[in-house]
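Dear colleagues,

As part of the handover before I leave the project, I'm documenting each prediction I ran so the next person doesn't have to rerun anything. This entry is a single chain, and its sequence is reproduced below.
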Amino acid sequence: MNLASKAASVAAMALSLGLFVAAQQPADMVGTWSGEATLEGMDEPNILTLVLELKDGKLAGHMTDQYQAIDGDIADVVFEQGAFNFTVPALFGEGHQGTILFKMKISGESMKGEIEIPEMPAKGTWQATKRK
C-alpha cells in the first residue's frame, strides 16, 4: 500500500469515527443541567435547570428557574457540531409572555453561551454543568 493509499485510509477512518462520535453526542446530553444565567443590567443571577431526554432520537427538554418565570418545554432545537440552540417560553413582569433564545456551546459535561430575550430586549449568558 503506497503512502497516498495509507493517508486516504486513515482519513476515511477518522471521518467515520468523527461521524460516529457526532451521532453519539445527543445521547450524551441526556440528563439534568443546571447553572446561573445573568442578564446585562441585572444584579442577581437566575438559576436555570434544563432536563434533557431523547424522544424519537431527537433532543427534547423542559426548563425551569428559581423564580418560576420559566416552566416550559424547549422548542426549535438545533444540535450540531458542538452547538446547541433552542428556545423556551417565559413570563416577564406582570404576566407578559416571551421567549428566551439560547445559543450554547457544549464541552464535555458543561455548556455555556448567550441568551437573548427579544421582547425585553435583553441579552446575557448562561453557564451550566451536567449533574451526576
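The first helix runs from residue 3 to 29. The CA atoms of residues 71 and 119 lie 18 Å apart.

All the best with the project,
I.
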